Amino acid sequence: MIYESLTCIADELNEYFRVRLKIPEDKVVLSSLVNQDGTVAIPSENKIALTLVNIEKEPAANKGVLTRDAPSVSVNLQVMFAVYFSSNNYSEGLKFLSLIISFMQQKPVFTRANSPALHDSIEKISVEIETCGLDRLNNLWATLGAKYMPSVMYRVRMLTYDAEVSREYRPVIQGISTAGSI
């Protein structure tokens, strides 16, 4: 569900940019900021990386609910939009950052009614901007192992995992081999 929700957000932002700015290519890419060797992981310059920064359990969800099955767990995602624009396009990157904030302000809730690409297993997600003080921001960029890029953080609420969802990802049995049996 994490991949599906972040892909939906990225796709909708790219469509927003295509319509608003009349640009043909995708600007938002689902990507980490750096590779394991420390190099930039974003596929090319003049892109916006949508990066998962943290996953946390939603403390208010499912309190006091008793079931025979394993209890469901609801999580929130902390995501970052980081603009990776060349130095001569710095101001262009800031424009895209402003458009992201504007888009998220206009559409704080994604449902299947207003976002047809939202995966069937997700009822809705909501997004809210998250404030980071300079100390926290410095620690975050150091933890990510990247040099600072203009960015904005959002909290994506709330994905609920339960036994039903977990069963969806079991591999399908393709056949049974009798070789080696008695």
Question: Could you explain the architecture of this structure?
Answer:
With 182 residues, this protein is an alpha+beta fold. The chain has a single domain, classed as STM4215-like. Helix content is 30%, strand content 26%. Residues 8-174 form the Pvc16 N-terminal domain. InterPro entries: Pvc16_N. This is Pvc16 N-terminal domain-containing protein.
Q: Topology of this protein?
A:
Layout: H1 2-21, E1 28-30, E2 47-57, E3 73-84, H2 90-106, E4 109-111, E5 124-130, H3 134-144, E6 151-161, H4 163-168
Parallel strand pairs: 1-2
Antiparallel strand pairs: 2-3, 3-6, 4-5, 5-6
Can you summarize this structure?
With 182 residues, the chain is α+β, with helices and mostly antiparallel strands.
Keywords:
182 residues, alpha+beta, six-stranded mixed beta sheet, 6 strands
- For the secondary structure, the number of strands is 6
**Largest sheet, order of strands side by side?**
1-2-3-6-5-4
Euclidean distance between termini CA atoms: 43 Å
Q: How many domains is the backbone divided into?
A: 1
Ranges with pLDDT <50 over ≥5 residues? 165-171
CATH architecture: 2-Layer Sandwich
Describe the biggest sheet? Answer: 6 strands, mixed
Relative strand content: 25-35%
CATH topology: STM4215-like
| Overall 3D shape | globular
Q: Strand pairing plus helix content: what structural class?
A: alpha+beta
What's the helix-strand series? HEEEHEEHEH
Helix content: 25-40%
Specify the CATH class. Alpha Beta
